[in-house]
Amino acid sequence: MNDSKLVNVTINGVPLQVPKGERIIESARRAGIDIPYFCYHPRLSMENGANCRMCLVEMAMPRTGPDGTVTLAKHPKPQTACSLPADEGMVVETETEAIVKARRGVLEFLLINHPLDCPVCDRGGECPLQNNTLHYGAGASRYIEAKRHYPKAYPLSEHVVLDRERCIQCARCTRFTQDISGDAQLDFLKRGADTQIGTFNAAAFSSLFSGNTIEICPVGALTSRDYRFRARPWDLATQKSICTECSNGCSIKLDHRDGLVLRVNGRVNEAVNEEWTCDRGKFGLPASISGERLTAPLLRDGDRFREVTWDVALGVVAEKLQAAGKQAAVLAGSKLANEDLYALQALCRGGLGSVRYDYRMGTQSSEARDAAAMLFGPNPAPTGIAGLEASPWTLVVGSDLAVEHPIVFLRLRKSWRFGKSKALEMVSSSAPANTHVGAFAWSSVRYADRGLPESLRSACSLLLAEMPGLTATPEIRAWAATGTPPADDTASRRMATALSTGPGTILVGEGALSGPDWREVLVALGHLAGLTGSTGSVNRLVSGCNDRGAEALGFGDWQPGTAGILAGAASGATPALWIAGADPVTQYHDPQVAIAALEQASFVVVSDIKLTATARMADVVLPSCSVAERDGTLTNVEGRVQRFWKAFEPRGSASPDWLIAARLLQRLGKPSVWFGWQDVLADMRSHVAAFGGVSLDALEKDGAMLVAPQVVD
Amino acid sequence: MGNPVTATRETWGPIAQGMALTLKHFTQMIVARDKTSVTVQYPEERREQYPRTRWRHALTRHEDGLEKCIGCSLCAGACPARCIYVEAAENSDERRFSPGERFAARYEINMLRCIFCGYCQEACPTGAITLRKDFELADHHRADFLYTKQMLLEPTPAPGAAG
Ligand code: SF4
Ligand code: SF4
Ligand code: SF4
Ligand code: SF4
Ligand code: FES
Q1: A635: β partners
Q2: Is residue A711's pLDDT more than 60?
Q3: Whether pLDDT at A710 is above 60
Q4: B54: closest CA among B163, B158, B137, B139?
Q5: Cα angle, residue B151 at apex, residues B149 and B152 outer, rounded to 5°
Q6: Residue A274: helix, strand or coil by DSSP?
Q7: Which of A457, A452, A588 lies closest to A512 in space, CA to CA?
């Protein structure tokens, strides 16, 4: 909508140059002129927008008379600044007497049916309606008639509570579900004073992103079930952080009180999550780090645990590790920070001379990963998240994107919404009929069990049929012609037309290369990427929070891998095993193997924030810190290293894993020089090429990209 | 030191004067029991406090016995000494403490930090927290100055008392 052409406008007598078509509310905001608003949101469409009328301004445009004289023609009615496109010569006034009166009127109107139960409202204290009423409203109400009443606290879903009395019908929530998350769950029901938001047939508001509506609702109509009545804004302290619930690494704010994270809100990071969060992070993160936490080291005493001092616990662990030496092993969890992984690595290699450490709990082998790196280049995610917006088509294979990578999904949907990109999807026929990407995909191709390579091959052969002039080696043509003849359905043909438009992006979920058929998948992907000219934009998505960081550090590069480590523990070849922040009993792809291994293992130490199923089987348990209780960095799926900040003190004597490793190193007689997490980071920057470009300055802002890691031969 | 006569006069004179005054008041009190006396026989007697005196807080109740406090934390927000701690929870029909949706599950005032400014009372939208005339707040242990909700809450009116 915005032309790059600049036009001259005047707001409150201040001459400004702004892009033609920019909404005046934005121009004014940049010039530091406050225009109050409710319904406007820069990321939401204007369909159903401009409905609250709070942003009224007076506007005049120059008009050339018949005699050529230019006069300023004032528009007879006030205009909504949120929908007013800037144009040459426009003159805007925001503080005239008429406007002051109009705003007061709008607020009085909005408050007619508003219950004004601010003292018990979770939005009170951070409520745009409160704030605007205070600044722009009348001092007292003239309304004495009965207000509209509804039952309070209607549960829209497990997480979202609706108070219909408080709703001002701004359509922010409905537009969010229609524009951003795309599930279109909310809409207006009834009309006139009875207008209310709701779901179709009063079904539960089921969305992966419902929590965002709570944040953007300008009143306390939508509130969080989990945060309900837990605190008022002035009771809370806020710390910047990074969500650890998946690999997308959203920038978030932790609101905490008395050492408890009470809620998670999105933090603006244009490169990653813009300002959104998914429900898994928003509601799952506080739950995952609250509850019963470990506060002191525990030592096994028969079939019970005994609390011991760190000195005793570390003494036992150091002795066992030292005795195991090269045979000692470490399994790391996906939520560990880069610093933890680096320190664990230093402990293994420098302290013990062992290369038995890994972080992978899935079935993907290092072989598959390295082969992919050979084929598509060392950078697993060359396109990145924001890069999706510029891609003419994006093919998703082997991933339920909205569930596994919610923020990547939102970005893909955004680029589709603005007509910049076609979304293509290859999905197993066992997936539900309506996939999230399928809802807006240009084409969604289904394949039978294990049929991904075949499906990719069929896409190649249709593509070759579509573009006879395509340069392809005879081998590729022959390969494409073998196997079952290409599925000749509409979806496949539509996909071929999109693929034929030139290079695009391919998103490969972790699942695609984890099966026994990974070689065939890889070959087929390679050919498809080659034929479409997209070899440089094949993105291998990792699922765990910091899996990308672990990969960049080479954490899982060594034989024997997780399977070998567990087998070693079972057979006695691994006399000492440290499991840091991982829970193989529930996370390993074959839990029985993990359980059997832990039962047989001669010595297992587990460091974690809670007494997990794995920790229960350990000989020593060490309490570690959650993301809220420490500083550090995490690497997200696109290779962005992002900093998180300590919000409050750890529980009891808990300690971050890097520090545990450092203390063990000292006991092993190989002391490190790390006094704080920054020292570990500094070490990492000078020793690991991938982290070389990570500057502290960039970490304070939107994070720093990894330097594409080199393949380890 | 100089003249013994002067010294004696300078020493004993003021003492005698002082004792005379004490004696005067003593006799007035004993004999006349007059209204000009300023001393009260604390703790047997207590002086009436001024109407707007602000001392110990009380959390008041509605006539039907429900708590007025709705756990809104506005008092805590207004308190310049940051000495009020409120944790709210949701009423249900089975467990109802106050009218409406919300009540204070925890309500604590750290009396050591309170400066008795009365801002909490000023901020309270329901008139729940009030500063009353009970000024005898001395105690032996620091921990005893943390007044809990149970200590602050008025007793439930006896059945039939309201009305
Ligand atoms: S929505 Fe805002 S104005 Fe309305 S009751 Fe809640 S805090 Fe008050
Ligand atoms: S619930 Fe909130 S966001 Fe939705 S229309 Fe009402 S006021 Fe707007
Ligand atoms: S009287 Fe003043 S200092 Fe004491 S609790 Fe109330 S607001 Fe706080
Ligand atoms: S005492 Fe009053 S201001 Fe304080 S929490 Fe209770 S109702 Fe709110
Ligand atoms: S903000 Fe412009 S009409 Fe609502």
Answers
A1: A641
A2: no
A3: no
A4: B137
A5: 65
A6: strand
A7: A452
Cβ contacts of A166 on chain B, cutoff 8 Å: none
Which of A154, A219, A223, A224 has most ligand 2 atoms within 8 Å of its beta carbon, as the pocket-test mutant? A219
β-bridge mates for residue A91, sequence order:
A10, A60
Q: Could you tell me the sign of the dihedral formed by the alpha carbons of A476, A477, A482, A484, in that order? A: positive
Contacts of A710 (CB under 8 A, 6+ apart): A378, A689, A690
Task: Give the C-alpha separation, A463 to A217, whole Å.
Answer: 46
Cα–Cα distance, B74 to A124 (Å, whole number): 10
Say if CB A36 and CB A55 are below 8 A apart. yes
Judge whether residue A492 has pLDDT over 80. yes
DSSP string for B97-121: SSSSSEEEEEEEEETTT-----HHH
> Is the CB–ligand 2 distance for residue A160 below 6 Å?
no
Could you please report the per-residue DSSP string of A399-441? --HHHH-HHHHHHHHHHHHTTS-EEEEEEETTS-SS-TTTTT-
Cβ–Cβ under 8 Å, residues A94 and A28: yes
pLDDT in tens, A22-48: 999 999 999 999 999 999 999 999 988
- Residue A92: beta bridge partners? A11, A59
pTM score of the predicted model: 0.92
Q: β-strand B84-90 against B102-110: which pairing, if any?
A: antiparallel
Query: Quick check: bond before A85 cis, omega within 30?
Result: no
Is any Cβ of chain A less than 8 angstroms from the Cβ of B126?
yes
User: The tokens of A401 are what?
Assistant: 């994107």
Alpha helices in A440-517 (DSSP H): 452-466, 474-481, 490-499
Does pLDDT of A541 surpass 60? yes
Whether chain B has a CB inside 8 Å of the CB on A229: the answer is yes
Q: Judge contact between A555 and A366, C-beta under 8 A.
A: no
Q: Judge whether residue B163 has pLDDT over 50.
A: no
Identify the DSSP state of A292: S
Is the Cβ atom of A55 under 6 angstroms away from ligand 5? Answer: yes
User: H/E/C letters for each residue in B82-98?
Assistant: CCEEEEEEECCCCCCCC
| Burial classification of residue A30, based on how many CB atoms lie within 10 Å of its CB (0-12 exposed, 13-18 middle, 19 or more buried) | exposed
Beta bridge partners of A300: A305
Q: Tell me the CA–centroid distance for residue A232 and ligand 1, in Å.
A: 12
Question: Three-state secondary structure along A594-616?
Answer: HHHHHHHCCCEEEEECCCCHHHH
| Helix H or strand E segment including A197 | strand A196-198
**pLDDT score for B8:** 86
Q: Which of A295, A263, A269 is nearest to A281 (CA)?
A: A263
Distance B44 CA to ligand 3 centre (A): 29
Q: What are the tokens at A295?
A: 């506060």
Mean pLDDT on A177-194 = 94
| Inter-chain touch B74–A228, beta carbons under 8 Å | no
CA dist A407 and A180 (Å) reads 11
Which SS3 state, helix, strand or coil, does residue A514 take? coil
pLDDT digits (tens, 9 = 90+) for B24-59: 888 877 776 656 667 788 889 888 889 899 999 999
Q: Which residues contact A514 (CB under 8 A, 6 or more apart)?
A: A362, A363, A364, A368
CA angle, residues A617, A620, A623, in degrees to nearest 5 = 100
Label the pairing between strands A640-644 and A704-705: antiparallel
H/E segment holding residue A307: strand A304-307
Which H/E stretch holds residue A300?
A: strand A298-301
